[in-house]
């Protein structure tokens, strides 16, 4: 059997271009695999706006303090003013109102002075009544003690008298028996009888005196109780009257303070700037327009000492936002080159720190956090970066490999939660 050898395959050669394509493909594949293991910074993105951190430094309106007309503006729109500068003055519609206020003030002062005198008189009356109570109580106790001692003395006296009475009674019975037996004379019998009757009368008198003194004790006790009840009722009445007068005095004092406030307001009718700032808009520019108390007259923007970005975050990402986390900020109008996952590439962005997070939602489905300036990366000056500028914020979380980030996105898993380290106080 004949064997055939095929040598045509030995003569074939791989195209050099194909070899280069394979080499490049393998290099690219290895590069992509290596890229999957590069670190990636997880972030949470949110939109925000630059505002003043202090609520008193945010834009607000200045209202009319009285009912009336605008008399004069001391400033114009977009004009900077200092604390204490006059902004505008008003005139009241009722020219006689100030006089009436002064009249009411004088009347209140008279009522206040009279009420003070009344309270002072009541306090003196109370002191006098308490002193009277003290004196009368001591007097009752003295009389009661004297009556008690008198009763004790009479009881001792009765005991001695009872002994004498017993002796005379026994002597009278003995003589009476002898008299019946015709042994003693009638004269001795009558003499013994008289002695017995005298001693008996004296004993009965002592018993009556003891009874009288005991009744006196009872009367003193009743009089004392009645006096204490009356004097305590008097003191309670005085206390209630003092309390009522003091309440009326406090009401008069509050009314006086209100009147003084009205007088101070109507004497000048001038509205002053409460802090340094800029008048943005004049809302009532017609001096002939009647302005009610509380109506907005000016829109005022105070100077801002500390700026913050009010970050709006969805409730889905809210658990990831914590105080102390660092952020990257892109302010509207600033050209940037930023890759959130690689914080080294952050040209045109600025650093920030989450200062606080609102505990409750102010808008359905959204929460707010406050981002302040990172001292290591100061923000542009207020002339360049004005309050009200919009911003995009990336909150920095943990570092993970790119392959993990891709796997997380494909499975719709949330980023890893990070707890910032607390700085020692």
Task: Describe, in plain words, how this protein is organized in 3D.
- This protein is α+β, with helices and mostly antiparallel strands.
- Among the domains are: 41-57 and 304-410, Beta Barrel (Elongation Factor Tu (Ef-tu), domain 3), CATH 2.40.30.170; 98-267, Helix Hairpins, CATH 1.10.287.
- 46% of the residues lie in helices and 23% in strands.
- The protein contains four helices and 15 strands.
- The chain has helices spanning 16-35, 97-180, 186-268, 402-410; strands spanning 39-52, 60-63, 68-73, 79-81, 86-92, 270-272, 277-282, 296-302, 307-314, 326-331, 337-338, 346-347, 350-357, 366-373, 390-401.
- A six-stranded antiparallel β-barrel has the order 1-9-14-13-10-15.
- The two termini are 99 Å apart.
Largest sheet: 6 strands, antiparallel, barrel
Strands, total number:
15
The best one-word shape is elongated
Mean pLDDT: 82
Short description:
The protein has helices at 16-35, 97-180, 186-268, 402-410, and strands spanning 39-52, 60-63, 68-73, 79-81, 86-92, 270-272, 277-282, 296-302, 307-314, 326-331, 337-338, 346-347, 350-357, 366-373, 390-401. It is an alpha+beta fold. The longest helix is centred in the N-terminal third of the chain and has 84 residues, at 97-180.
């Amino acid at each position: 059997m004949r064997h055939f050898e095929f040598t045509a395959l030995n003569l074939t050669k791989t195209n050099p271009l194909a070899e280069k394509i394979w080499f490049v493909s393998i290099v690219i594949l290895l590069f992509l695999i290596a890229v999957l293991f590069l670190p990636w910074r997880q972030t949470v993105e949110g939109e925000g706006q630059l505002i003043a951190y202090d609520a008193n430094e945010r834009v607000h309106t200045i209202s009319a303090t009285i009912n009336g007309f605008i008399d004069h503006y001391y400033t114009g729109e977009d004009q900077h003013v200092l604390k204490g500068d006059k902004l505008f003055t008003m005139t009241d519609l009722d020219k006689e109102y100030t006089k009436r206020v002064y009249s009411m003030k004088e009347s209140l002062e008279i009522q206040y002075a009279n009420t003070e005198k009344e309270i002072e008189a009541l306090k003196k009356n109370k002191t006098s009544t308490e002193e009277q109570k003290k004196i009368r109580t001591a007097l009752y106790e003295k009389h009661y003690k004297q009556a008690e001692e008198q009763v004790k003395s009479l009881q001792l006296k009765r005991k001695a008298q009872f002994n004498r009475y017993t002796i005379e009674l026994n002597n009278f019975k003995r003589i009476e028996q002898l008299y019946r037996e015709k042994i003693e004379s009638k004269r001795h019998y009558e003499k013994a009888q008289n002695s017995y009757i005298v001693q008996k009368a004296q004993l009965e008198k002592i018993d009556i005196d003891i009874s009288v003194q005991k009744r006196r004790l009872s009367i003193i006790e009743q009089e004392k109780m009645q006096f204490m009840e009356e004097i305590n009722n008097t003191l309670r009445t005085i206390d209630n009257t003092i309390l009522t007068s003091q309440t009326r005095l406090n009401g008069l004092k509050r009314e006086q303070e209100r009147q003084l406030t009205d007088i101070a307001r109507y004497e000048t009718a001038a509205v002053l700037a409460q802090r340094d700032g800029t008048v943005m808009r004049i809302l009532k520019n017609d001096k002939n327009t009647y302005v009610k108390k509380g109506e907005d007259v000016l829109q005022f923007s105070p100077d801002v000492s500390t700026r913050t970005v009010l970050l709006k975050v969805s409730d889905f990402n809210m658990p990831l936002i914590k105080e102390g986390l660092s952020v990257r900020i892109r302010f509207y109008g600033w050209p940037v080159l930023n890759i959130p996952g690689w914080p080294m590439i952050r040209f045109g962005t600025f650093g920030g720190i989450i200062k606080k997070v609102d505990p409750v939602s102010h808008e359905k489905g959204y929460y707010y956090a406050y981002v302040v300036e990172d001292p290591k990366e100061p923000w542009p000056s207020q002339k360049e970066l004005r309050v009200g500028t919009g911003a995009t914020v990336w909150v920095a979380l943990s570092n993970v490999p790119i392959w993990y980030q891709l796997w997380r996105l494909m499975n719709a898993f949330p980023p890893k939660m990070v707890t910032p380290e607390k700085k020692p106080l």
